[in-house]
Amino acid sequence: MEYTIIKEAVVHEDDDPPLKQNDVLSSTSHITGNVVCSIAATAGKTKVFTSKSNMFRKRFFPDATIVQWNDWHWQLAHRITTLEQLTRFLKPTLEERQALEDCEGKFPFSITPYYLSLVDLANPMDPLRKTIVPTIGEAVVSYGEKPDPLDEDRTSPVPGIVHRYPDRVLFLTTSFCSVYCRYCTRSRMVGGHTEALEFHWHRAIDYIRKTETIRDVVISGGDPLTLADDKIEWLLKQLSDIPHVEMIRIGTKVPMVLPQRITTELVNRIKKYKPLYLSVHCTHPNEITAESKRAFDRLADSGIIMGSQTVLLRGVNDDPAVMTALMHRLLQVRVRPYYLFQCDPIVGSAHFRTSVDTGKEIIRSMRGFTSGYAIPQYVIDTPGGGGKVPILPEYEVGKDADNLYLRNYEDKVFAYPDQAVKEAIV
Ligand code: SF4
User: Fold this and answer.
1) Model confidence at 260: pLDDT above 70
2) How do the domains of the chain map onto residue ranges?
3) Most CB atoms within 10 A, among 127, 336, 375, 403?
4) Cβ of 223 below 6 Å from ligand 1
5) Cα(257) to centroid of ligand 1, in Å?
6) Does ligand 1 come within 6 angstroms of the Cβ of 222?
7) pLDDT, position 388
């Protein structure tokens, strides 16, 4: 069925019209009744990205104007960072309350008002809530968990650089994020040491300049798109001026948690530099709203190429229907599904981690049943700094002197006349 996006319900003052059940394109166990990001099919012909954030603003921030709400500085200034603030919006469970009381000095807690508006406040099982509100599971240390499971600190030749593969580096530019994901691989270092990282920028760029094998730089953090325009542009210019740097990637969750940050001015500044790719961290279809769509439109219209990164999380997106809905919605906003990560074994992550078989089953359930473009590559970032390893369901089921035998999406086996097999036995 062909759909056309006919409007964005972003900045108008009126509450969105209620969606009829039949209008909701995808309805699964994890997509909440409070459908904040529903893609509605109107009369079976068109669909509209809608938003409930306006209702949330009127209820909890009645003095804030729509202009203020859509200002990313306002969103940052009104982040929810304490238990006391959170209780103004929802009733924490005992596990959440205890975790928040113990939070001080540990992995920080922060939610933008916009992102909280995507949460079904009455539902403790809301998928986005699980990813941003601490629970006591974070205090449980399980088998194999480490603060730095990927050994990034060991593969850091200078502060702020992780150099694991020959031709690319990770450049950690900030430790600040507008929202702290409870499963963050860098939970050991995010939250509040940004000045220290900025102090190392010159040395890090110098390392990249002197290491001619580096052709690809991933600017990450923390979330680099929370930096000021001037600083982002400065970083891009420095890197673009290095002849052997062929491409730059920015890893960010901003379009999902703070889409107001993707201003026309920011996009005009960043599109001028070397081929720029955005790796968008996304978790659940409820994140794709009218607001995030507007941000993606700005980025895509400027020629910035976008791919997604999703962490497989128990009780959040470990359901084939939810994962498929997320990937479909990403494609609709011009983000190509790229990576599905097995959750890294950081300390206190057991409540988030699924088995690897669950991930394989999700990929198996997608392959053949939806466009290949919608299927991300499922990978494990190997503990100890071994790098990413792709994980696939078992499609090769055997070989003999003539053929390789392959299982298709319908569980039927087909023979491929593999010349290499023939050659091997001659
Ligand atoms: S946005 Fe990225 S760096 Fe920031 S807390 Fe989430 S996973 Fe960690």
Assistant:
1) yes
2) 55-139, 161-390, 396-425
3) 127
4) yes
5) 11
6) yes
7) 94
Full strand arrangement of the beta sheet holding 39-42: 5-8, 46-49, 39-42
Tell me which of 10 and 396 has the higher pLDDT: 396
Catalytic-residue membership of 177: yes
What pLDDT sits at residue 421?
61
Specify the residue with its C-alpha closest to ligand 1, atom 6. 181
Catalytic residue among 97, 231, 388, 407: 388
Instruction: Kindly state the tokens that stand for 249.
Output: 């990637």
Homologous superfamily of 161-390: Aldolase class I (3.20.20.70)
pLDDT value, residue 195: 66
Per annotation, catalytic residue among 3, 165, 277, 338? 165
Q: What is the pLDDT of residues 228-256, one digit of tens each?
A: 999 999 999 999 999 999 999 999 999 99
The finding on whether 221 has its CB within 6 A of some atom of ligand 1 is yes
Query: What pLDDT shows up at residue 20?
Result: 31
Asked if the model's pLDDT at residue 17 lies above 60, the reply is no
**pTM summary value:** 0.87
Output the CA 213–ligand 1 centroid distance in Å.
28
- Average pLDDT for 111-115: 98
HEC letters along 261-300: HCCHHHHHHHCCCCCEEEEEECCCHHHCCHHHHHHHHHHH
Q: Is the pLDDT of residue 36 over 50?
A: no
Does position 81 have pLDDT exceeding 90, yes or no? yes
